[in-house]
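Q: Got a minute? One more chain.
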Amino acid sequence: MKKILFILLLISLITTQNYAQLFPVLGGQRAGISAAQFLKIGVGSRAAAMGESFIAIADDASALFWNPAGLVQFSENQVIFSHNSWLVDINHDFLGAVYHITGEDAIGLSLTSLSMQKMAVTTEFAPFGTGEYFSFGDVALSVTYSKKMTDQFSFGGTIRYMEETLDKLKMRGFMIDLGTYYWTGLGTSRFAVAVTNFGNQLAPDGEVVLVGKRNKSDWQSFSPPTMFRIGFAFEPYQSDLHRITTSFQLNHPNDNSENVAIGAEYEFKEPILNSSFYLRGGYKFNVEEQNYSFGAGVKVPMLIASLAFDYAYANFTKLGQAHRLSLILGI
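A: Always. Here it is, folded:
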């Protein structure tokens, strides 16, 4: 455990003082090369509050988004609903369910939706609107399977269908997620690797009429927003009533610079009410426009189930802030 603490301290010093040298902004030129950006928006208030440093924790139904191998890291059958009041009046919602077939196998279904109000159609000759309106929206449907191979190692996979609609244009595609989860045997430390949104090039279908009655139906293809993540987590302190969980994560997106995220969660177990209360915080390094996040949560027992309610605040340096609310029902 002393070796683990020393390594984490060393990593922390490097990332806080010299992360620009370790992870220089060399990927900024890749920005804008991928489509379906809504698939990169994080799910669940718990993960968001911890700076989205979550793949090595992933022990609730939000693992459907973060790491499919996490579905067998908890024993309850769970349903999750997450609402994200995203930037510029955009709504991002996630609904998922996890069912444990056996103690070693679990399956899950999830639905992701991004929506906004209709916008006015403008042209060069009608900059204030033509009187017509158009809509934009995204939706993704995913099926996940996870299996515990041993007491220490688990893996999982997800198949996802996504559809993006912009007025008369639609873009469709299939993607996969792959994840692993490994308990090292050193205290409570665990290590995880996840690859998300891996798939073929995406291009819109449909035809639009441009100014001068010109028709356009040939569109450029783009890559999906593939993300490769490596995470490490452990509990530096835990007792019957208190627990502190820390997490460190390296992120490699295909359309931007590499970055680092750290997060922590404090849990207090209230023995009389048999409830748990949580405080969380996180920080992202080398992520343009984003930095700190924090949040809180509570988990209470019910007659035949448990209910967890979580809130998260994420700060954006110029665009404002994002608020997330999520509910997890466990049976």
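A: Residues 2-22 form the longest helix (21 residues).
Q: Perfect, thanks.
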